[in-house]
Every structure is written in C-alpha cells, then in structure tokens.
Amino acid sequence: MPVTDAAADRALLEDAARAAGEIARRYFRARPEIWEKDDGQGPVTEADLEIDAMLRAMLTAARPDYGWLSEESPDDSDRLTRGRVFIVDPIDGTRAFIKGESDFSHALAVVENGAPLAAAIHLPIKDRMYTAAQGQGASRDGTVIAPSGRGDWDGARVLGAKSNFKPERWAQGRPPVAPAFVPSLAYRLALVAEGRFDAMVTLRASWEWDIAAGALIVTEAGGTAQDQRGRPLRFNNPHPQVDGVVAGTRAVQAALVAGLA
C-alpha cells in the first residue's frame, strides 16, 4: 500500500474524532454504564468502549498496514513491527465525562517510527477541533494557532495537578508560576499550543495515548514538548508510557525543565 502523507492522515483523524464526538454526545449526561478497571486504572464507561470499537474499525479499515494502540484495547506487540501506528484515547478525561463536565476530549495520533506525524484532539461538547500534521503547523477549527510567546516563567500560567508544584519536586522550591488545572492531558497540551496557557507539566509516568496527539500540536504550533528530563518524547514504546511531560513556550518550558529537582 502506498504511504500516505501527513495531511491525509490528519484529515482521517479529524473525521474519526468527529465521529467519536457524535457517540460521546449521545451518552453525555445520560448515565452511561460505568466499570472500574483492574489495577486502579480508573473508570471506563460504555461510551469509551463504543468509541474505541468505532475508531478501531474506521481507522484500521482506512489504513490496514498501521498498528494500533488504544487505552481501551488490549495491547498487541504487533504494533512494534509497524512503521506507523495509531495511538488513541477514546475519551481523555473519563472522570470529567462521567461528572457531566465538558473538559473531556478525544485524542488521536499517527506515529511514525516513534515520532508523531498527524494529530487531532476534539472536544465535542465545546465544539473545538485541534489538528496538526508534521511540518505543516497546527490549527484550531481551521485557524492557525501559536503559543503565548511568554519569555519568563515568573508568573507564567502553567497547567498541572497540585502535586506537580510541591516544593520538594523543584531544586529551588516551588516555582514562581500561576498553576491551573483541567482534567484532560490532551486538552492541556492543546491549550498551551493555542497560547491560552504558557505551559503544562505532569511529573508522573504518562500513557502515550494521553500525550502523542497533543505533543505534535504543541510542537507544530511553535512550542516545545519534552519529558521531565528534557529528552525528546518517543512513542510506540514496548511499555507505552513516557517519563512525564513538560510543554510550553520555548523559554518557559526550558525554565521548568531546568528548575526541576
């Protein structure tokens, strides 16, 4: 099969993300059935599972030579043999979805040899669509986006859970930033990419499906996204996690990485 270009994969992901949104809206605030995953991995709803099944059928039919990695599908080591892989979170922010809050998203990426190639993040209740393709920039609802341009971390608006800002995590104590929080990691990255926040940080090992799409959107917008030690983010790992994420304007992101203990 001929290799498709990044723009074609981006268009496919956008269509799939919109289809996911149609399913999510049907279940939203409609008391979907909920189960708890094993090993304390949190809740999953019938909406997550229906979206996962739809995305897998749609995407792998369109690109049968691509591998598959999703939060809600059993992992298959066959993906490690594929040059390109779909990395998908059917609903990022399931707890927010269950509560009837609108800050959940669908996060879809195509990764090629460890690097994101195309991405879509869709917030169906807010009716927002963020997309990117390697070398072709990033957009929200078709309009080009860019980070805030902030050059100093003093007072920077940084998205992250409260635990990330504990003084003991930082070489010189708590950083001089203004923290904020939204539940979806993918949405945090999108908000940084469009300049509504200056940076985001998560210091826990992070699942690839939460990060891959947003990492590309940030970097294509003109920001930087790395792990917490300042190393490039690589995806489709045998164990599909990365060592935390720090993303933002180039200056604020660099200051945050340098400031970590």
Automatic annotation (TrEMBL):
Write down the InterPro entries for this protein, in alphabetical order.
Inositol_monoP_metal-BS, Inositol_monophosphatase-like, Inositol_monophosphatase_CS
UniProt enzyme class: hydrolase
Q: Which keywords accompany this UniProt record?
A: Hydrolase, Magnesium, Metal-binding
What CDD domains does this protein map onto?
CysQ
Which Pfam families does the protein's record reference?
Inositol_P
Question: Which PROSITE patterns does this chain map to?
Answer: IMP_1, IMP_2
Task: Return the EC number.
Answer: 3.1.3.7
Q: Which GO terms describe its molecular function?
A: 3'(2'),5'-bisphosphate nucleotidase activity
Which family, according to UniProt?
Belongs to the inositol monophosphatase superfamily.
Under what name is this protein listed? 3'(2'),5'-bisphosphate nucleotidase CysQ
What is the organism field in this record?
A: Jannaschia ovalis
Upper lineage is:
Bacteria, Pseudomonadati, Pseudomonadota, Alphaproteobacteria, Rhodobacterales
